[in-house]
Amino acid sequence: MKLYISKFILGLMVLSVHFISAQNLSKSKFKVKGNCEMCQTRIETAAKKAGAKTAVYSIDLQTLTLETDGNVSTDEILKKVADAGHDNEKFKSSDATYKDLPGCCHYERDSQSPPAEAHRHHAKKDNEFYVKGNCASCKARIEKTAKTAGADSAEWSAEKQTVTLIFDPSKTSSDKVLKAIADAGHDNEKYKTSDAVYKNLPGCCLYDRDIPFGEANPDVHFEEEAKHDDHKEHQPATLTEDHKPSEKSIEGVTITGSKAATALSKKEAGLVFNIDKKELLKAACCNLSESFETNATVDVSFSNAVTGTKQLKMLGLDQKYTSLTKELLPEIRGLASAYGLNFIPGRWIESIQLTKGGSTVTNGYESITGQINTELLKNAKEPETSLNIFADFNGRAEANITSVSPINEKWSQTFLLHGNGTFGDTDMNHDTFLDRPKGTQINAAYLLNYNDLEKSGFGSHFGINFIKDERTAGQIGFDKTLGQDKQGAYGVGIDISRFQVWNKTGYVFKGKPYQSLGWMNQYVYHQQDSFFGLRNYAGKQHTYYSNLIFESIIGNTNHKYKAGASFLYDGYEETYLMDDMKRNEIVPGIFAEYTLTGLKYTLVAGARADFHNLAGTQFTPRVNFKYDFTPQTILRLSAGRGFRTANVFAENQQYFASNRSIQILQNGGNIYGLRPEIAWNYGASLQQEFKLFGRKSSIVADFFRTDFQDQVLVDLDRSPQQLTFYNLEGKSFANSFQTQWDFTPFKNFDVRLAYKYYDVQADYIDGRREVPFMAKHRGFVNLAYATNKNDKGGFWSFDTTLNWVGKQRLPETSSNPAEFQLPVYSDSYAVLNAQISRNFNKKIRAYLGGENLTSYYQKNAIVDFRNPFGNYFDGGMVYAPIMKANFYVGLDVTF
């Protein structure tokens, strides 16, 4: 009996020792590089030999989970793992050891050594999980969702990008909680949110989805008001012990955000630039046409000498070949083509997405060279009202009032009001013609938003917009109230009324965050009444657009698809001189798009069929492919087809203020007797990121070619007294090459350099020629510097942009008398813009700027300006600025 008792006591002692030892074990996770099962065996063996009680390596997660007691350090274990050939977050293997690994074990190595970046990682506990987020709003959403899913407590760390969970396993599980967090919009180590839910997060919460788990997030910002601060990238966001705003901070836990005002999206298969409203504040951004002055991708033509219109050009082709949308709905097209850029005030814009090359088929068939989408202000956690006042030194003034406010947890609203007026007579080249029109514009919009995606799955956006724009141009002294036949001065009058209403409604299926249904609808009424000297042009357009999109997956989120149907109705009524022209375009369409996502690649392939009542059935395929050689080296390829119907009168109004007679050489088509325009676009780009001066730097080089299968040519060369339209017979192409380098030489100082080359030619009736008004060579320099913020949030900003434009071919004028002839090519020139702004605090900002500070201007902007009713008068031959240096001031106040 005593023997049994002794054995029992001895057994209890042994078990107690094991129990106590187990209690002293600690578990931690570390990033370790490896490729295959051979790597797994090698890593686990090295770790156990170094003293780990247990070692489990995950090839998928690239993590090593260790259990150790107090007699051995994890640093020593990781050093032995590195000695075995595997880089980890604290130690790097020698080159010789790495090269001796079998070929299948040669993982991708980082350019920087782990010790230099060891502070970016941490040992992760069992109840700690990677969850992505940016700000205090993300923190609140993640923690609230976790608790709703059954967690007793949840603490999200912005620095670590992890959530620490405490829960009762009998009531919930980490899987259930993490799935709920993903459904709320936050990618985590086990579940990924759907694109629809992610895109519906507030702008400040849109984290970078490409950053690997465990890496620091450079976009973290914890000042709640930072989303209203246009230069928050220059202000460090300090995290306190409870991760809330405070003057007290943990040593070494200060994170500096570096989100660029314009950034090339690394996650998109296409070449997509995201332009933040911070970028728009770098220049006098009065409307959309001025939103690209600091952007090298888009070329902005200079104002027409008589009508004051500006046009965008991309990939060497006119604006009409780029799809211009607002809230992903068709916007600047049809009769709005000439003046539509003036109808979106710069202060209304929250962000712009610019896509070069073929865009997604879900947005329609008209995109040939790319897409520019504008998002209006509509996101705010707290009510915010802003006032902007602007005036230049030549008689132009404008005011903007924007108010964004939440109504309750689900509803929010936005009021937008804009008014501008040009009152001064500006004639800097002394040709008796106004350098820009006088007139006024009133523009008002109301947006109503409903967001209940997290609970019911529904979200909706409603908008209404009204515009009244009146402008008068021509000779100084022209009186618009008198008929042109009752006065000798030449005049131009343009009156535009525009009304639009739209709705976008979406539903995310319960339990299926990857599956959604969206429906967009819009109605637009546009009316223009105008005259150009003795010529009149008037037009009305009714447009109804509807687009239904269903999105889901095939098996898993690596295989996504979209499918849907669209409908477009355009009703046109136009009058030019004595000719009345009417047509209705009715276009039902269907489309489908498939996205394949691999470890290093993304493929997006789509096609649509549109059944146009006048242009016939059109098939539009498009494909975009992205391959990440490394996270810093990205290759993109694209190809696609697009088609459109040309509005030859509305799109060429810059030539109406001339003596040119319009001639259309019809060929049996159904739109002005012409066939639709059809083109193929092909592109390739290479994006390379690297460190320079210890800071992020990137170079992007891209080449695109556009080949027209059919095109409506605008021929200005047949005669200086004619404007001729006809369909292409032969070839027409545009080659575009651009390289852009962005870098930061020192803190708060950003540099952007770019060079562009265009080769744009077409087979006109008289032979192949370069397309006029397109410079082959262009150079671009943008410099931006901001001082550090003071304790009130105040700072200075300095921005300057230099555009160099090479020589351009000018239309043929050799049959004119010698004094009215233009040279074959224009001179090259440079234009310098600059702005200084002062943020006194987070609510008051003043700015002073200058445009065309080189004061270069085109001296012969109007041909035969002394005789505007004669045979040689032409106000459409503009290739350079027509105004000298112009200065402006402005004030922004937020309430």
Automatic annotation (TrEMBL):
Q: Which domain of life is it from?
A: Bacteria
**CDD domains in the record, alphabetically?**
HMA
Q: Which stretches of sequence are listed as region Disordered? A: 225-249
Task: Give all residue intervals belonging to the HMA domain.
Answer: 124-189
User: How is this protein situated with respect to the membrane?
Assistant: Multi-pass membrane protein
Q: Where in the cell is it found?
A: Cell outer membrane
Primary site of residence? membrane
Q: Which UniProt keywords apply?
A: Cell outer membrane, Membrane, Receptor, Signal, TonB box, Transmembrane, Transmembrane beta strand, Transport
The question of whether Signal is a record keyword is answered with: yes
Record bears the keyword Aminoacyl-tRNA synthetase: no
The name this protein goes by in its record: TonB-dependent receptor
Species source reads Chryseobacterium pyrolae
